[in-house]
Amino acid sequence: MQDSFDITTLIFIVLAVFVAWRLRSVLGQKTGHEQPPFDPLSRREPPMRPETPAADRDNVVRLPSQNGDRPAATAPATDRWKGIAEPGTPVAAGLDAIARSEPSFDAAVFLEGAKSAYEMIVTAFAHGDRKTLKDLLSRDVYEGFDKAIQEREKRGEKVETTFVSIDKADFENAEVAGANAQIVVRIVSKLITVTRDPSGEVVDGSSDTVVDVTDVWTFARTLGSRNPNWQLVATEAGQ
């Protein structure tokens, strides 16, 4: 990562401002969410697929890219992913493949964007904010989340959740097939969440217990496209 102020830094700043504004618009002065209960959509291995239709291209996480249409470059230095992926591992190989297509790819910045997207999405799910979810998810993932929200609404349940922290975010996998890339991120967070029935009685969780939550999320994007956004295409509860 360069120390000088360049276009990558500017894009990251713009992303940070955008995320802060979206979170405030969803929650006002209060931040809260819950983990989707037992996979709003069950884990599927998302196939590498052609570029997503324009209607489904939504802001999830961005690669800082100076020129998304640049041709493949020489292989990155072996220490490029120091502290992120060990040389010779499948994750490093996948990140190398992404960087060959888009040399300005910054793995550390990607992880920060993934953490911001995680908080936005899980918060919106807890609040039943379909509009925000629809703007952030692929079609299949949105349908799974929407189904879980509908079931909760039928039961008349309300969720009270406090987002405590994101403690860790690591690359679980990265791969490229043709122009299609997928990155799997394992995110460890802390939540306080309680679900109440229509009478106000607690039916799940606790209002004073911090819970450790691990999720494994898959983001996908067509490399070299003019659209710099990555979409959430699969979720899984981690071990």
Amino-to-carboxy terminus distance: 32 Å
* Number of H/I helices: 5
Low-confidence stretches: 23-39, 41-45, 49-61, 63-75
- What CATH first level would be assigned? Alpha Beta
Number of distinct beta strands = 6
Largest sheet: 6 strands, antiparallel
Tell me the series of helices and strands, N- to C-terminal: HEHHHHEEEEE
Domain count: 1
Rg, rounded, reads 18 Å
CATH topology annotation: Nuclear Transport Factor 2, Chain: A
CATH architecture: Roll
- What is the beta-strand fraction? 25-35%
Structural class: alpha+beta
Which whole number gives the mean pLDDT? 77
The percentage helix is 25-40%
Q: Your description of this structure?
A:
With about 240 residues, the protein is of the alpha+beta class. The protein has a single domain (about 5-235), classed as Nuclear Transport Factor 2, Chain: A. Helix content is about 30%, strand content about 25%. The protein contains 5 helices and 6 strands; from the N terminus they run H-E-H-H-H-H-E-E-E-E-E. The protein has helices spanning about 5-25, 90-100, 105-125, 130-135, 140-155; strands at about 60, 160-175, 180-195, 200-205, 210-220, 230-235. Strands 1, 2, 3, 4, 5 and 6 form a 6-stranded antiparallel beta sheet that branches. Helix 1 packs parallel to helix 3 (about 105-125) and helix 4 packs antiparallel against helix 5 (about 140-155). The longest helix has 21 residues, at about 5-25. The radius of gyration is 18 Å and the shape is elongated. The model is unreliable at about 25-40, about 40-45, about 50-60 and about 65-75 (pLDDT under 50).
